[in-house]
Amino acid sequence: MTEEIIIAGFGGQGVLSMGKILAYSGVMQDKEVSWMPSYGPEMRGGTANVTVIISDERISSPILNAFDTAIILNQQSMDKFENSVKPGGLLIYDPNGITRHPERKDINIYTIEAAEKAGKLGLSKVFNMIVLGGFLKLKPVVGMEFIHKGLEKSLPLRHHGMIPENEKAIETGKGLITAVQLVN
Amino acid sequence: MKELRLMKGNEAFAEAAIRAGADGYFGYPITPQSEVMEYLMAQKTSERTGMIVLQAESEIAAINMVYGGASCGKRVLTSSSSPGISLKQEGISYIAGAELPCLILNVVRGGPGLGTIQPSQSDYFQSTKGGGHGDYRLIVLAPSSVQEMADFAGLGFELAFKYRNPVLILSDGAIGQMMEKVWLDVQKPRFTEEEIIKNTPWATTGKTPDRERNIITSLDLDSLKMEQHNRALQAKYRIIEQEEIRYEKFNCEDADYAFIAYGTSARICQKAIQLAAGQGINVGLMRPITLFPFPKKVVAEMTSHVKGILVVEMSAGQMVEDVQLATQGRVKVEHFGRVGGIIPSPIEVVEALKKQIIGG
C-alpha cells in the first residue's frame, strides 16, 4: 500500500498540522512516511500545502507531481492541484469559498462542508480534523487507534486536553463527506 | 535503545548532534536551516548535556568560534545555508589549514547571491573543489533522507576527528524542511577534559611541563615548511580517497542506463526508476554519499555495462564534470537539472532520460 496525498489551502487552516498528524499516525502504525511542506514565499502568498506519503515500502521521492488524493481547501489550490490527481484518484474539497468547482471527469470527487460545520459548532480550531475525518472515512490508511497516538505525538503536551475534541471532530468529518462524482 | 521520531531534517540533525556528544554550536539564522539553532535552543542543551549553543553576531564570527572550539579539541559545529556558507569560507580554509576537526552543515538554497530560499544543489563546486583559498579539501557527505541527516552528524564528527579535517554535510532545503521517520542513537557522553587531553594531544588544552607548547595555526612564513605542510595535507586527502568512499546503488544490476544523483535528486531518481520501468526502460541509480571523496572508480566501472548516464542535479551541471572525468568519454554522459530553487519532477527526469540519453 502506498498513498500519495496533497493537502492544500490557506495558511492558518491547519493544512501542515493535519499532514503532520496523519504522518505521525502512520509512524505509530509502523508505516513509512514522508511530509514535505511548501515553505517560505509560497506560504506568504497565502497558500500552504504539504505532500504526505504513507507506505508499506521505503519511500522514493518525497516530491511528486501526481497524487492518489488531493484535499483542497481554497480556490487557488483547486486551480493548482485539480490536474495533479491521478486518473481514478480522489479529490476532496470544501466548497466554502470555491468559485470554480472541479471539472475532471476521470476522478472521484467528494465535498466536505467542514468550514461551515466548524463555524456552527464554534470549533474553528478543529476544522482541519473534520476534513481529516472525511478523508479517513474514504481511505482508512491508518487505524483510529493510531490516529489517537499520532495526536498525542504531534500535539504539545499542554494541548493534550484537546485530543478528545479533535477525535470528535474526526468522527464528525466521517459523517459529513458527500459523494459528488464516482468513477470507480 | 534507539528512539523513533518524526522530525524535520534540520531538527534531526540538531538532535543527533546533541546525542553525538557535541560540545558547542555556533551559528547565525538563515532560511531554510533556521530550525537547527531553534531546536538546539529549545532543547536547553546547557542543562541537558552541557553543550553550548550560541547565536553569533554573524556567520564569520560563528565559524571563527568553531575554529576556537576545535583548537581546544572540542566537538563543535556550525550550520548555515548557501550565502552564509560563502561568508564562512575564509574560516573554513583556516580550519582546513590548521587541520582541525569540525562539522559544517550547508542546507543549500538557490543562488547565486541571495538567490532564493527554495532547495538547490548549486554549491557542489564550492563544497568539493575548495570554497575558500588554498589547496584543501573537505570531507563532504550528502544526505538524501532525514535519517541520514541524523546519522551524518555522528559520522561527521567521527571522520572529522579521525582525519583532523573539517567535514561538510551538503544537504538542501527539501531535506532540511521535510519530515520523515528517524531512528535516533542513544546519547553519547561529551568528552571529559581528561579524555580530550588523551584523544587530541595536539589540542590547546594548556601546556604541561612534560611537553612543548601546542600551537594551532595555518601560517608558516618558511615556504619550504609550508610546502611540506601542503604535501602532508595532500597525502591525507589521498588516504581519505582510499578509505572513505561511500555510495549506494539501486537497481543497477542489468540496467541499460543509469542515473547518478545525490541528495534530493537521488530520491526523485528512485521514483523516476519506477516510472521508467512502467515504460519498459531499465534504468538504475548510483548515489554518491561522499562527494569528496567522489566514487570515481564506481562510476568508471559502470561504463562497462550501461549505455548512457544521466546526471541529475538541481544545478546547471556541476557533479556532471566529475562523472565525465571518471567515464573518460566511454559512454554518453548528459546533465539534467532545474535551477533557481525548482525541484525537477520524476516525470521530467524520465523525459530527460528518453530525450538526452536513449533517443540522443
Molecular structure report:
The complex is a heterodimer of chains A (184) and B (360). With 184 residues, chain A is an alpha/beta fold. Chain A has one domain (2-181): Pyruvate-ferredoxin Oxidoreductase, domain 3, CATH 3.40.920.10. Chain A has 7 helices and 7 strands. Chain A has a 7-stranded mixed β-sheet with strand order 2-3-1-4-5-6-7, sandwiched between helices. Chain A starts with a strand and ends with a strand. The model of chain A has no long low-confidence stretch (mean pLDDT 94). Chain B has 15 helices and 14 strands. Chain B has helices at residues 9-19, 34-42, 45-48, 59-71, 82-87, 89-97, 124-128, 146-163, 173-177, 193-199, 223-243, 263-278, 296-302, 319-327, 346-358; strands at residues 3-8, 24-27, 52-55, 76-80, 102-108, 139-141, 166-172, 179-184, 247-250, 257-260, 283-288, 290-292, 308-312, 332-336. In chain B, helix 8 (146-163) links the parallel strand 6 (139-141) and strand 7 (166-172). Chain B is globular and about 70 Å long. Chain A binds chain B through residues 20, 23-24, 27, 32-37, 39-41, 59-66, 153, and chain B through 4, 6, 31-32, 117-118, 173-174, 177-181, 264, 267-268, 270-274, 343, 345-347. Strand 2 (32-37) of chain A pairs antiparallel with strand 8 (179-184) of chain B.
Give a quick summary of the entry.
Chain A contains seven helices and seven strands.
Q: How would the blueprint of this fold be written?
A:
The complex is a heterodimer of chains A (184) and B (360).
Chain A: E1 2-10, H1 15-28, E2 32-37, H2 41-44, E3 47-55, E4 67-72, H3 75-81, E5 85-93, E6 108-111, H4 114-121, H5 127-138, H6 144-154, H7 163-176, E7 178-181
Parallel strand pairs in A: 1-4, 4-5, 5-6
Antiparallel strand pairs in A: 1-3, 2-3, 6-7
Helix pairs in contact in A: 1-6, 4-5, 5-7
Chain B: E1 3-8, H1 9-19, E2 24-27, H2 34-42, H3 45-48, E3 52-55, H4 59-71, E4 76-80, H5 82-87, H6 89-97, E5 102-108, H7 124-128, E6 139-141, H8 146-163, E7 166-172, H9 173-177, E8 179-184, H10 193-199, H11 223-243, E9 247-250, E10 257-260, H12 263-278, E11 283-288, E12 290-292, H13 296-302, E13 308-312, H14 319-327, E14 332-336, H15 346-358
Parallel strand pairs in B: 2-3, 2-4, 4-5, 5-7, 6-7, 10-11, 10-13, 13-14
Antiparallel strand pairs in B: 1-8, 6-12, 9-11
Helix pairs in contact in B: 1-2, 1-8, 4-6, 12-15, 13-14
